[in-house]
């Protein structure tokens, strides 16, 4: 018990003396008495510590309230004139107040630079508080209702306000006087109904209103804002269109003259056209530097405006916008796009810069505009059941073309991630697009000729998900590649980890899915005269590369070889050509193998283009009347075959 008391008092002589007096003679009840003292320290300790601290010239104070439950006098900070950094926090996961102020709080030090106070127990700050030196105000999980007590005339030093999870907050107006504010974090302030106009705040870069369910609009965008988080709000119209629809358009003389110069006829100028052009020119005035826009789970959002002029926007999150059914255009420099769970049926042309596309749960998605040169490197179509075989084949074709050109251009630099990855639900009509065997392992032989020009592998992995699967830990595929060259050489093992879904990114899937990886970095060197047997083992793992349980397991897999084009840039028709050399598989008595074989370009295209409705050769079927859809599919299939037969000879090699 003595050691417990010393550790709790942290060696403080005054505290040890007082605790010793309180516990003296209580041998049978010492444990219970010590617990009681921890919850309610003697007044002599509090008064003694207060007198000591008041006599010191304190500049910084940090207090963990997780094990405290005490009443504090209203003038506790009265004599702490030089206190600059105050941090009161709770290191425990328990939601406890810690400090109680039965008579309120009279004041706070006027020299504070940092005020970080978790679970602040009062509804308001001390009256007429002067924050003239304050740089950061951080009071998460507070009971604050408003910030009216702050002296608004002197907030020029304030740069960051963090009041997240302050669920009693109903008013937030004082920031208009903080001319140098850079960040405002009010996420999950669920009673806040209005956010003020911030168009005059030149330095404001980040605004986070996620979880503010009563917010219905965002007016007056800061001119230099870079991140805007509106997840889970009640906004029904994206802020860009709100500015566009504004009836008040202010233009300076220079901008007005530039608009008038666009009219060829100087004598007849349509004033309505001028007004419309003025609105368009001002619609992105506050979003010209916006990089990250989060509209996730905005269930009232139904459509998006034209966003092509938002040239700085790189990340757009629209997942969970269940009413969103139409997208006109995307920002031209966007890199990441999240549209999972929306009602979108058609995706317009994707920007050339796009690297990641997550469309999980877009069950209505049927069409994607393929009028772009390259595919995103990573794209997720889990639970997208309306995708046709033709569309999936087009994605495979686009992805393979990109990989082939990258492999040639980069001269096979080793990478930690695949060049292209893809996830889709696997259906019977899709299986013909892939070379699969019912096993979690695959084996191939690599003759020396193939090794010299090897660019990597195309891997297909089918995963079966049980009904109780829930993506709490993230999901990925681990590939263990073993190269066996002969008896005289040791096996070479290369392990790759492909991260597919972040935790909760794809919460649940309903059916089996196939994951496709085009990897141009998976080719360790081998001796010129060797013919290694390469074994691939696939496992389902968490985001931290830990094996997952039986709720998801690999049931099928297939591996194919990728070779670069012999000359020039690979076109989509060239990307599906097949090498004439056959790579025989070595039989194994232990496990089934994913076999490789040589196909003609016509056969491969038949696989890539998709499983069209085949017409049987019986006389009865030949005379059967075809539906419009069958005629369309047959004509598309014939056109695709003709394209393959006319393709050039130079090709990427897939076996």
UniProtKB/TrEMBL annotation:
Annotated SUPFAM superfamilies: L domain-like
InterPro entries the UniProt entry points to: Apaf_helical (IPR042197), Disease_R_plants (IPR044974), LRR_dom_sf (IPR032675)
GO biological process, one term: defense response
The organism's place on the tree of life at top rank: Eukaryota
Protein name as catalogued: (rape) hypothetical protein
Designated gene of the protein: BnaCnng41130D
């Amino acid at each position: 018990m003595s050691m417990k008391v010393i550790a709790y008092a942290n060696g403080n002589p005054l505290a040890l003396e007082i605790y010793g007096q309180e516990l003296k003679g209580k041998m049978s009840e010492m444990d219970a008495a010590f617990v009681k003292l921890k919850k309610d320290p003697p007044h002599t300790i509090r008064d003694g510590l207060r007198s000591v601290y008041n006599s010191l010239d304190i500049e910084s104070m940090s207090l963990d309230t997780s094990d405290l439950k005490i009443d504090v006098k209203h003038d506790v900070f009265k004599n702490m004139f030089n206190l600059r950094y105050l941090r009161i926090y709770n290191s425990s996961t328990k939601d406890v107040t810690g400090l109680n102020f039965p008579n309120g709080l009279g004041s706070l030090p006027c020299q504070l630079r940092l005020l970080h106070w978790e679970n602040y127990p009062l509804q308001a700050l001390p009256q007429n508080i002067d924050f003239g030196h304050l740089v950061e105000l951080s009071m998460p999980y507070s009971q604050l209702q408003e910030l009216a007590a702050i002296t608004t005339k002197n907030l020029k030093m304030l740069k960051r306000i963090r009041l997240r999870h302050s669920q009693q907050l109903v008013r937030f107006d004082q920031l208009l006087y903080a001319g140098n504010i850079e960040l405002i974090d009010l996420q999950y302030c669920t009673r806040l109904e209005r956010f003020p106009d911030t168009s005059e705040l030149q330095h404001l870069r980040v605004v986070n209103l996620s979880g503010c369910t009563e917010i219905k609009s965002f007016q007056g965008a800061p001119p230099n804002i870079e991140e805007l988080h509106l997840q889970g709000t009640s906004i029904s119209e994206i802020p860009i269109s709100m500015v566009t629809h504004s009836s008040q358009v202010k233009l300076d003389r220079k901008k007005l003259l530039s608009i008038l110069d666009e009219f060829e006829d100087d004598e007849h100028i349509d004033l309505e056209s001028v007004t419309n052009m003025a609105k368009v020119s001002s619609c992105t005035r506050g979003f010209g530097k916006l990089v990250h826009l989060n509209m996730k789970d905005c269930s009232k959002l139904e459509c998006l405006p034209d966003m092509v002029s938002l040239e700085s926007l790189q990340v757009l999150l629209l997942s969970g916008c269940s009413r969103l059914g139409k997208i006109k255009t995307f920002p031209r420099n966007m890199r990441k796009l999240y549209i999972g769970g929306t009602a979108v049926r058609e995706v317009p042309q994707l920007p050339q810069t796009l690297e990641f596309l997550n469309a999980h749960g877009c069950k209505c998605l049927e069409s994607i505009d393929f009028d772009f040169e390259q595919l995103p490197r990573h794209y997720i179509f889990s639970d997208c059941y309306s995708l046709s075989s033709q569309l999936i084949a087009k994605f495979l074709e686009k992805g393979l073309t990109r990989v082939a050109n990258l492999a040639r251009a980069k001269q096979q630099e080793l990478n930690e991630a695949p060049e292209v990855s893809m996830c889709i639900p696997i259906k019977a009509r899709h299986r013909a697009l892939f070379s699969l065997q019912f096993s979690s392992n695959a084996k191939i032989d690599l003759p020396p000729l193939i090794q010299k020009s090897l660019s990597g592998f195309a891997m297909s992995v089918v995963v079966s998900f049980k009904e109780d699967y829930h993506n709490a830990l993230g999901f990925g595929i681990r590939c263990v590649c073993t190269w066996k060259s002969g008896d005289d050489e040791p096996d070479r093992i290369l392990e790759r980890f492909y991260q597919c879904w972040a935790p909760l990114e794809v919460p649940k899937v309903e059916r089996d899915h196939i994951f496709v990886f085009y990897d141009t970095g998976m080719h360790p060197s081998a001796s010129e005269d060797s013919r290694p047997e390469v074994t691939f083992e696939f496992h389902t793992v968490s985001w931290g590369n830990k094996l997952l349980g039986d709720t998801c397991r690999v049931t099928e897999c297939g591996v194919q070889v990728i070779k670069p084009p012999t000359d020039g840039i690979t076109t989509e028709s060239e990307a599906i050509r097949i090498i004439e050399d056959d790579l025989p598989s070595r039989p194994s008595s232990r496990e089934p193998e994913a076999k490789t074989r040589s196909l003609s370009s016509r056969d491969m295209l038949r696989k890539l283009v998709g499983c069209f409705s085949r017409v049987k050769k019986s006389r009865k079927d030949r005379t059967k009347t075809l539906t419009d859809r069958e005629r369309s599919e047959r004509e598309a299939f014939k056109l695709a075959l003709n394209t393959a037969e006319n393709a050039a000879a130079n090709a990427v090699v897939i076996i």
